[in-house]
Amino acid sequence: MATKEQVTEYVNGQFDENDPSNWEYWEKPVGGGIQGTRISLVQNWMSPEIAGILQKLVGDAIMVGRIAKNRSNV
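Given the sequence above, the corresponding structure tokens read:
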């Protein structure tokens, strides 16, 4: 089983701004009848309340922390 720190490190690695392959994955259209990109799907699915719960589970990961702080945009 992974530790909380390992999960946080993995999640942060998915959004590393210095790794263009990560951003290509997240910003490339999904396809297969799905409109939009993976990042837009995550942002639409993950409400600030869900992000707050995930933040408690995985730590202060980059994307989770950003969405959790956005509680006024509901």
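The longest helix spans residues 4-14. Try to locate this feature in the token string yourself.
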